[in-house]
């Protein structure tokens, strides 16, 4: 029976693999006879490809267009016929040149190029993580890269970005590939309206009121021309409307991100062989209780005790106990300054993980 270490990232300080490494090292020091298995996890956002690679997938580089068209190298993960693609790798905010936000013209085209490359490499199932998008183009760019044709009234190809969709006249989806597409997302927003892609997520991408209105008009026109059957589907608004694009153009299914990724990474089987599971994330809070990685791990652990490490814990002890955690070890327990917790995350986590190992190495029968 093992200790299974399955954390998400500490955003801004440690990757999920680094968190797992630190925790495993603490067990090796404190309880050297304790078998430990590392299985970093992700919920479909940034870190998804890295988690897949840590679980045995191959990391594949591809030259693609970033959200503004500038060429960049992005990565996807491949194992046999399954590819894991992280939308942010090609079309994320961190790919914007100089960090300059481009809410009206940013495109998901590069993510479509990643999907095309994966299909060319033999993938028949694509798992697409939807977090971190820089664009609000309804997935139009993604579909264009895969063979869709979007034309204006004069028959010319449409310019990239969500605002240009207001000029859309005709769409031809006949060139799209047949692929089993699963969108990993916990977002339930529709495409349009006050809870839609532009209104809710546009501000994160630099859109003010005028830009949000322009993007809403573009997405409305996109749905009118390509077909609005999925416009109200929960999750259609994910990643600036990419959810709508892959639902409509590729017949995608949407599944909760952490549930899908845990299944893909082989977590349920690993948990059956564990006597303790250690999970975690940067901030364990009320949002965590609504399906983020630690609670997803808790639910999938099948009754195995689960302990969390975190940068900070904003839940009271009764709250995390009621959720089902056997313990929580936060960096802010020993260092109240959150800036220092980020800057010194590795050393602080090593100390908290050592305490965890001391507390639990003999507490739970092998």
Helix content: 25-40%
DSSP summary: helix tally: 14
Question: Would you list the SSEs in sequence order as H and E?
Answer: EHEHEEEHHEHEEEHHHEHHEHEHEHH
What integer value in Å does the Rg equal?
21 Å
Which stretches are low in confidence, meaning pLDDT under 50 for 5 or more residues running? none
Give the arrangement of secondary structure elements.
Elements: E1 2-5, H1 16-30, E2 36-38, H2 48-54, E3 58-65, E4 71-79, E5 82-86, H3 87-91, H4 109-120, E6 125-129, H5 140-145, E7 149-151, E8 170-172, E9 180-184, H6 197-201, H7 209-226, H8 238-250, E10 253-255, H9 257-265, H10 267-272, E11 274-284, H11 293-300, E12 306-313, H12 317-323, E13 327-330, H13 338-343, H14 345-360
Parallel strand pairs: 1-2, 1-11, 5-6, 6-9, 9-10, 11-12, 12-13
Antiparallel strand pairs: 3-4, 4-5, 7-8
Helix pairs in contact: 1-14
């Amino acid at each position: 029976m093992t200790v299974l270490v399955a954390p998400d990232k500490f955003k801004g300080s440690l990757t999920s693999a680094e968190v797992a490494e630190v925790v495993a090292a603490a067990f090796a020091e404190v309880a050297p006879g304790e078998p430990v298995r590392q299985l970093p996890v992700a919920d479909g956002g940034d870190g998804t490809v890295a988690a897949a690679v840590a679980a045995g997938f191959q990391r594949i580089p591809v030259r693609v267009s970033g959200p503004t068209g500038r060429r960049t190298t992005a990565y996807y993960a491949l194992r046999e016929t399954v590819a894991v693609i992280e939308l942010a790798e090609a079309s994320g905010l961190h790919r914007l040149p100089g960090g300059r936000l481009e809410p009206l013209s940013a495109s998901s085209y590069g993510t479509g190029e990643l999907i095309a490359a994966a299909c060319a490499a033999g993938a028949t199932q694509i798992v697409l993580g939807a977090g971190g998008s820089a664009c609000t183009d309804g997935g139009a760019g993604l579909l264009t890269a895969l063979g869709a044709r979007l034309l204006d009234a004069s028959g010319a190809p449409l310019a990239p970005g969500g605002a240009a969709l207001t000029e859309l006249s005709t769409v031809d989806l006949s060139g799209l590939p047949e692929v089993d597409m699963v969108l990993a997302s916990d977002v339930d927003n529709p495409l349009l309206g006050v809870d839609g892609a532009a209104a809710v997520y546009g501000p994160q991408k630099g859109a003010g009121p005028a830009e949000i209105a322009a993007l809403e008009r573009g997405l409305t026109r996109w749905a009118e021309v390509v077909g609005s059957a999925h416009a109200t589907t929960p999750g259609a608004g994910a990643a600036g409307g990419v959810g709508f694009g892959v639902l409509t153009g590729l017949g995608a299914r949407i599944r909760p991100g952490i549930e899908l990724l845990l299944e893909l990474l082989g977590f349920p089987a690993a948990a059956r062989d564990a006597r303790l599971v250690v999970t975690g994330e940067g901030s364990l809070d009320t949002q965590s209780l609504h399906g983020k990685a630690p609670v997803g791990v808790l639910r999938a652990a099948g009754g195995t005790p689960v302990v969390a490490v975190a940068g900070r814990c904003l839940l009271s002890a009764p709250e995390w106990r009621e959720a089902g955690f056997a313990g929580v070890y936060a960096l802010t327990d020993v260092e109240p300054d959150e800036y220092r917790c980020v800057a010194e995350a590795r050393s602080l986590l090593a100390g908290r993980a050592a305490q965890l190992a001391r507390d639990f190495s003999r507490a739970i029968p092998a």
